[in-house]
Write a structure and sequence with these properties.
By secondary structure, this protein is α+β, with helices and mostly antiparallel strands. The protein has a 6-stranded mixed sheet with strand order 7-4-6-5-9-8, with no helix packed on it. Strands 16-13-17-20-19-18 form a 6-stranded mixed sheet, with helices on both faces. It starts with a helix and ends in a 5-residue tail after the last strand. The mean pLDDT is about 95. Bound molecules: adenosine monophosphate and magnesium ion (MG). Adenosine monophosphate (AMP) binds next to helix 3.
């Protein structure tokens, strides 16, 4: 049986980054950049004022007090016509270019304007003025030729703003992946139906489709396949049109766990079956000519955990994000915790930021079928195999779950 690390390795070696397309910047939120972006501008593009006030020569106001002749006014979007001589000031607005000859700005709050017949004067009374005060130099935040974003970056609002500043109105991104979600089981009924004796609602399909969407991919909900070869074969065929097909249920050792054999019959080759973890041991993974297929265990928390660890890795790999494998964080346990288990376990936990650092509390979890307690959690704590009494404040590895509460 593969370990989690071996299973993740198998996924990243079988799945390659997917095709690329061009999209308008306005539609690129959440997409993954396919090409590195270098700047072809300096930012800011000119020395500019950070304040409304007066552009001056710092040496004229070295003591903090001065009376200067105001020779011009420059607002944002304009360029001063005059070059500043000693003894002069140019009134300036935030965002306007610093005039030639000036090397500092004195904010308007520290000035008083005097107008007589011949000229406008500004009286300055402030702390000693130094070169570069209240202005920002050309190229401080980026220089022409700088690499500002690597390929594989998921685009958030700040990246989109930066790309807009660079004039990149059309972006090269990885094509969005379509993920089919197929539930299997004779016991399942649709979520708007009243279960009869022995039946339950198909909750996995809704949950997995939401996990797909939270990952930035497109979910196609394929409904329920019954535990017979004909129905499974037909719905698997339909699902193989997707880039990734997720099945839930039917991958363990029961008489009606027909998913692996029906996948093989549909031309999907097994890469691995079963991974040493809890919950989620029966996980099945394979590939066909055009699709990647996960047979997720039917128990809801098993499905959810396998999605977070393994399906997400495949999605990140397809999208070209680096690294594709999960990036856990560390947190201190909030309480003593007695762990018993012969497999590495991903245990639902509530991660909080405390003044002395991140802290995680294991929730009252009753195992792989207990989805309810995951609603109290926002992460999973990784406990290695082996019985152990963990102490409060001991550091543990935590995987945050995506999706906002
Ligand atoms: P299986 O992997 O098919 O043996 O299913 C394991 C357990 O998960 C059983 O108790 C199933 O009833 C339950 N289960 C399977 N599929 C779903 C589903 N789509 N929604 C909720 N529970 C499910
Ligand atoms: Mg089943």
């Amino acid at each position: 049986m593969l370990t989690v690390v071996e299973a993740l390795d198998a996924i990243t070696s079988v799945v390659a980054p997917g095709p690329v397309e061009s999209v308008p910047l306005a539609e690129a939120l959440g997409r993954v950049l396919a090409e590195r972006v270098d700047s072809d501008i300096d930012s800011p593009p000119f020395d500019k004022s950070l304040m409304d006030g007066f552009a001056v020569r710092a040496t004229d106001v070295a003591t903090g007090t001065a009376r200067l002749v105001v020779v011009e006014e420059v607002t944002a979007g304009e360029v001063a016509e005059k070059s500043l001589e000693t003894g002069q000031a140019i009134q300036i607005m935030t965002g306007a270019p610093i005039p030639d000859g000036a090397d500092a700005v004195v904010r308007i709050e520290d000035t008083e304007v005097e107008i007589d017949q011949q000229q406008t004067l500004v009286r300055i009374d402030t702390r000693p003025v130094t070169t570069g005060q209240d202005m920002i130099q050309q190229g401080t935040s980026m220089r022409r030729g700088d690499t500002v974003m690597p390929a594989g970056r998921r685009l958030r609002p700040q990246e989109l703003g930066l790309l807009a500043e660079l004039g990149q109105h059309t972006l090269s991104v990885h094509r969005q992946v379509t993920v089919g979600v197929l539930a299997t089981g004779d016991e399942l009924v649709a979520i708007d139906r009243q279960p009869q004796a022995g039946q339950i609602r198909n909750s996995n399909e809704s949950m997995l489709a939401a996990q797909v969407r939270a990952s930035g991919a497109v979910a196609r909900e394929l409904g329920i396949a019954r535990d017979n070869p004909e129905d499974l074969a037909a719905k698997i065929r339909e699902g193989l049109d997707c880039d990734i097909l997720l099945l839930s249920g039917g991958v363990s050792a029961g008489r009606l766990d027909l998913v692996p054999e029906q996948l093989e019959a549909a031309g999907v080759t097994e890469v691995f079956h079963k991974v040493k973890l809890k919950p989620g041991k029966p996980l099945w993974f394979g590939t066909s000519k055009d699709a990647i297929v996960f047979g997720l265990p039917g128990n809801p928390v098993s499905s959810m955990v396998c999605f977070e660890l393994f399906v997400r890795t495949a999605l990140r790999r397809l999208a070209g994000t680096d690294p594709a494998t999960p990036c856990p964080t560390a947190a201190r346990l909030a309480c003593d915790f007695e762990f018993r288990g012969d497999r590495p376990t991903y245990f639902p936990g509530r991660l909080e930021n405390q003044p002395d650092g991140p802290r995680v509390t294991p929730v009252n979890w009753h195992g792989s079928s207990d989805l309810r307690s995951t609603a109290d959690a926002n992460s999973m704590i990784h406990f290695p195999a082996g019985n152990q009494l963990y102490q409060a404040r001991q550091w543990v590895e935590v995987h945050e779950w995506a999706g906002r509460a």
